Amino acid sequence: MKSAQEPGAGSRGAITDSPWFFPLVAVLLTAAGYARAPWLGFVYDDDVIIRANPYITSASNIPAYFTQHVWTGLMLARNNYYRPVFLLWLLAAYKAFGTNPLGWHLSSLLLHLGSTAMVYQLTLRMARSRWAALGAALLFGLHPVQVENVAWSSAVTELLCTFFALAAFLAYLAALDSLGQRGMLLTASVFLYALAMLSKETAIVLPAIVFLHEWLGRPGCAAAAGARRGGTAVIGAIKEALPFAFVALAYLAARIAVLGAIGETTAKLGTRVWLQSIPKVLAIYLGHLTWPAGLSVFYDYSYVDEFSMASVLLPAALIVLVGALLLTAGRKSPAALVAGAWMTLAILPVLDLPVFPRGEFLHDRYLYQPMIGLALLAGIGIGSLEGRWPGRGPRFALFAGCAVVAAALGATTFAQTRYWVDNFSLYSRGVSVAPRNGPANMDLGSVLINRGQLDEGMALLRKAVEYTPNLYLAHYDLGIGYFQTGHYGDAEASFRRAQAIMPQFADAGFFLGMTYLRAGRLPEAAECMRKAIALRPENVDYRFGLAMALQQMGDMAAARGQLQEALRIDPAYQPARTQLQKMDATASRPPAP
């Protein structure tokens, strides 16, 4: 029996007629594309955000999630993020899985599969075709630009935000269709939207999507009201969007209270360079969506410093052309306009280029939410062609073509996941795709040094500081390499440069102190370590290093005090306990005759 929202359903059998058959197919095929994902390791920032994050090990830290920025206490300079639900997820995952990557990756994959199923349901409402909804869900689930979010555990913030935003919008649509349960469903929708906002700030666009959906005649409802873009419709649309807008305003107020501002400028860009770079960024993203080859977590793209035909005008013309095509296609389809708006609005927050660290303004993970709009557009297009080509032959050609595209995307996604097995694979891929990218060379160089390939690693670190002179971590890693090989003069220069770029980077100060300690410059070593302790008082390694410097200077009482303080902070810190035992043993020996 056909459903009012499933005109493509037929009488081919109880299984295929089931409302769960097509979304289940979408989920299983997407899972097949990510078959390698559960067995990937921790990569990139996972060591800092998951393995070495003291704030996700205890529920006693939960109040701080709502009163501090997301990287509080970590060796990360960025404080632009207020994401309490993301931290709650990290806490729950840490309690459930510890530092076993399997559980983390499975949970990320489940979130992606859940969003894929919801894209199916949303497209079914918009396109009124199960085949169209299947095509949209597979495009969303299997597109290779999604790999970065699914394969990288610390990118779960994007998965959470999108999952809750989709659930909120579907609950809102259900509220419009249900008179008896409207209040309960609308409350659930607003609550889910709050979770989305507290997962990642880019969910702020949802009230605008709700407004447009209402203003354009509710194309996602069982009984669409039809286009009604008059003054009354505007008032009605504002009323529907108000509950979500209030949540967004409450989030912004909390964000400002915690961070001190809505956002902080990280990259010092002039307005001209910023505006000139936007067409290029959009054109690159469009290229990755339409031809997802050569993807990586690193790229060699730079800001557009000079206005030219190739760098500004041609990308801008391309974006204008695509926008015009979308508007033309949506003239007779309110659903297509909603889809196009979703894609456009979701990409707007990532065009605020100055909030990203310099050179880190373009990543495929930022396309996760815009992919909802693209998938919806594709599904609506498939549904339109399905209606225009009622014959069995044209429909077979249409579905066969969609199957080929889905298979190609799935195969590419499966291949792309292999680069996320470990850091060596990920960073090797990065240097291969972007040989002049400073962070890519830095990260691969550090991995090679840890693998004992010192010469190769140092060569890459030198390239990193050449390509990106203000990359403080590259100078720091270079200093570590020099320190390990006994080149203390070069190590000192590298650590000082890292400190000059990032004065609050305590580790650079500590290892500068260790360099002085190895070189016998004890007062300078003690001074550096005291400054490091002032920046991170809870770090027991810093206190142990200071104790060693003080002991060699003959100040045994002060050295003992630092060791005891280290044990007070961390009673299980064995180096301090061992050193105190040595000091006690030395003090109890009778003096030599």
Strand content: under 5%
Q: Which bin fits the share of residues in helices?
A: 55-70%
Number of domains: 2
Poorly predicted parts? 1-12
Question: Mind describing the biggest β-sheet?
Answer: none
- Supply the helix-strand structural class: mainly alpha
Number of strands: 0
**Terminal CA distance:** 104 Å
Spatial extent as radius of gyration: 28 Å
Count of DSSP H/I helices: 27
Mean pLDDT across residues: 90
Fold and architecture overview:
- The chain has 593 residues and is mainly α.
- The chain folds into two domains: 14-420, no CATH class; 434-588, Serine Threonine Protein Phosphatase 5, Tetratricopeptide repeat, CATH 1.25.40.
- The chain has 27 helices and no strands.
- It has helices at 14-17, 21-33, 46-51, 62-65, 84-97, 101-127, 130-142, 147-151, 156-177, 182-199, 206-215, 231-259, 271-290, 309-330, 334-347, 370-388, 392-416, 423-433, 438-450, 454-467, 472-484, 488-501, 506-518, 522-535, 540-552, 556-569, 574-588.
- α5 crosses α10, α7 runs parallel beside α17 (392-416) and α11 packs antiparallel against α12 (231-259).
- The radius of gyration is 28 Å and the shape is elongated.
- The model is unreliable at 1-12 (pLDDT under 50).
